[in-house]
Design brief:
mainly beta; Coagulation Factor XIII, Chain A, domain 1; four-stranded antiparallel β-sheet; 9% helix
Length: 299
Amino acid sequence: MISAILLSLPLVSLLPVVSAHGWLGSVTVGTQTFVGNVPNASPTGTVIRQIDDVDPVKGASNAFLNCGQNAQLASDVAEANPGDTVAFTWVNGDDGPWVHNAGPMQTYMTSCGSQSCSSFDSSTASWFKIQEQGRITPGGDWAMSLMNTGAPANVTIPSNIAPGNYIIRHELIALQIAQTEGGAEFYPACVQLKVGGTGTGTPSEDELVQLPGAYSDTDPGILVDVYSNPDAAYVFPGPAVAAFVAGNSTATSSSASSATTSSSAVASSSSASSASCKKRRDVVRPRTLSRVMKNLVPQ
């Protein structure tokens, strides 16, 4: 009976479920912008590994925690330099601005070794953290919330990193229902790079982690009520930022120049996001339903 009622509802009534999730719509590396493939659509050339569903990854041991839902190799590689800004523009399931506003953003990198990252299997990669972003101010809004206006999240490639082939992985952890175990929502995305320069910075062996493997569903930053005690210090899951990265980037904010965070970068102005959105307006976007709705709506 319930299924019959749901099936009788207009599809438009189901759209908020889709919009609440999302994907990495575009990335700007230095001065070059690359548009991501729509989840589960026919792929085109890009540097962003394509996922097949806008739903979050659930569970800290989920294999898709690596690069996203069934992430596929991307065909292209972005040229980058130490110190370049990488601007990640996340969108919701309707290609509008990101909607979640509570939870951290973290960025990792892994070396693809001597091979191009376009053919690198990241499932057994060793990752090191280069950035973590929490609240803008103690007890205040999260840096993630700045993306609700369409602004990108800016991350700086370490200025002393050794040249080579790398994947840079940006991760959003939405905590709005993280009060119960398994409630945290993970949104990882992977971008393929080739970094130049003459740096020598590399992580130490004890700073490398597996993904999945670095988190537990009961970690204090994953099983947490961020609303009952907003003044409590947030404990970032995973390793600390690699020691060689320290001091390589600065915090910026579109909403408050004096804002402080426990991170190395904050989402900034929406100009880069606006430019990338214009490039995507003519792209046909198939509707991607959440897994719950797929069980209710005929395909």
